[in-house]
Structures are given as structure tokens and as C-alpha cells.
User: Fold this.
Amino acid sequence: MQKLKMVFKVGARRIEAPNQDGSLAENLRLLKQQFPFFRWTDVLEEDGQVHGNELVYPVELPPAKTNG
Assistant:
């Protein structure tokens, strides 16, 4: 049995998990240091979708703030 590769999909961008052997929480902690937008999003285990040999977590960005 082949292990699934963990990937985060932000819009059209795909970001591989920095620690493929780590948990979702560990990977999110590492990604929050490199990509600040991960700090304001929620990614849950049940959001993961299997696509081929990848476990893809879609990441919804918060709406942009505007004045007015």
C-alpha cells in the first residue's frame, strides 16, 4: 500500500506539506511560519480529498478587507 502525499490547494497554487510523515496539525504549524494566510484559515482532517496518490486539502482564503 502506497502512502498518500499531503498537498494543500490554495486557489490554483499547490503547496506540498513540508513534513510528509507528520500530522495535519504539525504541517499547518510549519506552513503558518512560511505562509501567513494559513493563520486565518481552518483546515480540518475531514476536508481532505483523495486525488490519485495525493491527499489534497482545499484552503479557503478569507475575503479581502476593504475600507468603507
Observations:
- The chain is about 15% helix and 25% strand.
- The mean pLDDT is 91.
